[in-house]
Design brief:
The chain is an all-alpha fold. Helix 4 packs antiparallel against helix 5 and helix 7 packs across helix 8. The protein starts with a helix and ends with a helix. 73% of the residues lie in helices and 0% in strands. The chain contains eight helices and no strands.
Length: 192
C-alpha cells in the first residue's frame, strides 16, 4: 500500500546525490540501497527497463561500500528476477553465476533463486524440475529463523508442490492407460 510513497522517497534521495545542476553525480553513502529499493519497486509495477537501470546503478555504487557484499547479492538476485520476468532465463542464470560469496546467507539466496528459475524453466525443459527436486533432497521444512531462510523454506514448499503435481500427472497418465488396458481385457474376456 505504501509503494508510491516509497518510490517518491527513493527518487527524492537520489535527487539529493547531485550538488548543483550540471555538476557530476556524487554518490551519497549507501545510495546503492536506495537504487536497489527503487529497482525492486519498479519491478513490482512491471517497469522493467527503468528497474534494470536502477538495479545496475545499485551494483555499480555498491562497489564503493566496504560491507556491500550482501547488497550486491541482493541487487544481483533482483536483476536475475528481472531477467526472468522478461523471459530470459539464460540471462537470469548468468547473473546468478556471477555472484561469488562464502556467506551462508548469500549461498542460500542464490541457490533458492536458481531453484525458482528451475521451476519456471521446467514448463519448457522438464529436466529443470529434476534439478529442483535434487536441491530439495538436502532440505527439510523447518521453522524460519533467521529471516533470510524464509525464502529457502518457501522455495522448498514450491518444489514439493511441483513434485506432487508431476507425480499426480504421471499417475493420471498411467491410471488412464491402466483403465484402458482393463477395459480392453474385459472386452476380450467377454468376447472369448
Amino acid at each position: 500500500g505504501h509503494l508510491p510513497e516509497a518510490l517518491a522517497l527513493c527518487r527524492k534521495v537520489i535527487g539529493a546525490t547531485t550538488v548543483n545542476a550540471g555538476q557530476p553525480e556524487r554518490p551519497i553513502p549507501y545510495a546503492a540501497v536506495v537504487y536497489r529499493t527503487l529497482g525492486q519497486i519498479l519491478m513490482e509495477w512491471n517497469e522493467l527497463p527503468e528497474a534494470e537501470t536502477a538495479l545496475l546503478k545499485s551494483l555499480e555504487l555498491s562497489r564503493f561500500i566496504a560491507a556491500a557484499v550482501e547488497g550486491q547479492m541482493e541487487s544481483s538476485v533482483a536483476l536475475a528476477r528481472l531477467k526472468q520476468a522478461r523471459g530470459d532465463i539464460t540471462a537470469a542464470y548468468a547473473v546468478l553465476d556471477g555472484i561469488e560469496s562464502d556467506s551462508p546467507m548469500t549461498k542460500a539466496m542464490v541457490s533458492t533463486q536458481r531453484v525458482r528459475l528451475y521451476l519456471a524453466d521446467s514448463y519448457v525443459h522438464p529436466g529443470a524440475l529434476k534439478e529442483a527436486l535434487r536441491w530439495a533432497e538436502g532440505h527439510i521444512l523447518r521453522p524460519v529463523d533467521p529471516s533470510w531462510q524464509t525464502l529457502e523454506t518457501l522455495t522448498l514448499a514450491r518444489v514439493m508442490i511441483a513434485g506432487c503435481r508431476q507425480a499426480a500427472q504421471y499417475a493420471n497418465i498411467h491410471l488412464s492407460d491402466l483403465k484402458e488396458l482393463m477395459k480392453f481385457l474385459d472386452e476380450q474376456i467377454r468376447n472369448a
